[in-house]
Structures are given as C-alpha cells and as structure tokens.
Model the fold of this input.
Amino acid sequence: MPIEDALAQIVGGNIVVLLIAVFIIVCIFLGVRIVPQSEKHVVERFGRLRAVLGPGINFILPFIDTVKHKISILERQLPTASQDAITMDNVLVEVETSVFYRILEPEKTVYRIRDVDAAIATTVAGIVRAEIGKMELDEVQSNRDRLIQQIKSSVEDAVDNWGIEVTRAEILDVNLDQATRDAMLQQLNAERARRAQVTEAEGKRRAVELAADAQLYAAEQEAKARRITAEAEAYATEIVARVIKDNGIEAAQYEVALKQVEALRKMAEAPGQQTVVLPASALDAFGDAFKLLKGRG
Done:
C-alpha cells in the first residue's frame, strides 16, 4: 500500500478527534483570563456588562463573554494645568494645579464618562475658580493648605459617580501680574518700615523704663543707707547718754578729749604736712584726758 494512502486513512479516521482537541484548547485559551495585580478587566456579554475581573485567575464563557476594557488601577497624575481666577478683592491670579487619582470602580468609569482625564481637569478648573473667588489674595497666599483641602473635597464630591478616588490635589504656584507684584512689594516695604519704627519706639520706651527703675532703685538704696546711718547714730547717742548718766560728765569729757587727740594725729600723718596746728585748749584737753586716765587707773 502506498504511503500516501496510509496517511490519508490515518488522518481521515482521527480528524474528528483532532478537531475536538483544537476546540477544547481554544475554549481553554478564551475562557481563562489572568489579570495582573495593577489592572481590572470589564467583561461584557452580548454588549452588556457581565462582570469585573480582579487580579488573579478568572474564568469566563468563551465565545459569549468578552473582555472589552482593561483598566489600570494604579494612581495617575493629571498634567499640570493653569487657570486664571479672580480673588474676592478683584486680583487676577494664575493658579497651577495638579491632581492625583485612581480608579476604584472601572464599570462606572467606563460607562459613565468618556474622557476621564479631561473631565477631571475641567472640574478642577471650575472648583479652583470658585474657591479662590471666595478668598482675598492674602488668604490665598497664607492659607494654601486649607485651600487645597477645600479643592480636594469638592473634586471628590464631583467625581464620586465616576468610580474615582482623588488621592491628592496640589496647588503648585500662584502667579500674579507685574503691577500686582509691584504693589505688593511696596506694601511689604511699608510694613517693614512700620515694624522697624515700632521696634525702635519700643526700644526707647524700654530704655526709659529701665533708667527710671535704676533711679528708683538708687533712691531706695540711698534711703536705706540713710536710715541705717540714722539708726546707728541714734544708737551711739543713746550709748553715750547712758554712759554720761552712769559715769557723770567726766566720761563725756574723756570721750571728747580722745576725739581731739585722734583728729590731731590724722592731721599730723597727712602726706606733705609740715606744720601741726594745735588749738589753744589742746594742752588742757590732754591734761584732762591724762587726769581721767589716771583717775581710772
């Protein structure tokens, strides 16, 4: 038997088995879906939403169910956008914003919005203009964190029906025109000059207060010194009076004589002193002192 005829008989007898094997392989290939961790797949059946496949191995009906959309669930960043806004005090500013988001419910994102990036960018622009219109320029500059939180909250409410989570909203810069910048610079310089004048005035006032406190302290100390001196003199006078009372007039004369001798000694010891002046009663004072000493001895 020729080889050609043998091959024809073998193939003819197993063609059905081969077709069945090929069909099973195709069904397995089409029915098993492996979804990466960073994606979700939207499955449709006859044009309608059938299921959303999560990460891992999933099974669908081949030839009936089809994967129509493969959605990344990674966090995304919108391109930096700039939009003009007018503050409450009628100042035109240019605001640069950036928004980060991720898709949580792909079925809503796919069937409710066509261009999600453009929709979010338009929503952010409108919200930024509305929020800045409620604030004055100084508040925009100083309360940027609060403004960011308000924008983020408003954007989250607006995109909630799209199955999106806004993770961050950033205001990168707030630009002003040149005329506004010049006016703000003049205001800043005037404020600095005012603060310098206030600081200088406060310094002078503090210096006057300290000087007055010093004078008051000196006067108090001088008054204390005078009071202590007066008390000491009064005590000494009281002692002298008591001695005179106890010992008579001789004790007073003895004290006066000693004072005179001490005064004459100091005059004699003074530098450059060549002449010692003795009062007429000095000899009598010495004599009285010696008599008193002799009497006590």
